[in-house]
Amino acid sequence: MTSVLPVSLVMGVVVGLLVGAYFNVFNVPVMEWAISLEEAAAAAEAPAGEAEDGGGIAVSLGVQRVGMAAGLAVLGVLFGAVFTGLYHLVRLASPGWNMWAWSSIAGFLGFWAISLFAQLKYPLNPPGIGEGTSLLARQGFQFLFIAVSILAVVGVCFAVRKVVQSQPHGVGRWLGLSGIAAAYAVVAIAAFLLIPGNPDAIPEWVPEGLVIMFRSFSIIGHFLLWMGIALGVAGYIRYKEKGICANPAAAERVSVG
Q1: Is the pLDDT of residue 63 over 90?
Q2: Which residues contact 130 (CB under 8 A, 6 or more apart)?
């Protein structure tokens, strides 16, 4: 018996480390650019003849890069756990489909609900953007938005399952699915409009191209993480099943949990 959860968690670590390498190659130079601009802006605003003191603990670039990869591995574990729940919901809502379809849809739903939709509302910013006084409020509203987003997607999965079971085919099924899509759109738009966004403006010293690059590389990294977990889980389990099914005596015991 092959369980999806442990495979998803391990795959989250592996893919998280790979995506961490991606971020180190693409995002770290952009972050260094932002930090240098922030230091230059702070030096320009300091009184003449007054030296700037960082006041913090210096961390080497190597340690920062390793920390980023480790952080992405932890994030991969969290995404793997969420993926497992979405995978089972999608599998129940679409019986008869294959594991590649279930995994791909679950990965895309996770990417949409937690990463893409959330970043449309709360775009990721490079270092130096954002006031410390608004940090807790921003993080609280962002967490609330992500919670509403993922709950809405889970509700869609349950509703689709119910419609599929009660309306196997015909016009009633399509009307039910259309109603679910409309209801989700209402909830998503309401959450987007009613939950407060990020109040901090981008400083004038930050070039627009820097922000675009940082946000683009970040969302691509999230997409690679979600779909890497989804396709990695499906591929690994199919590979294991193929190996087990080569033994006729064990083939009857194979199932995906």
Answers
A1: no
A2: 138, 198, 200
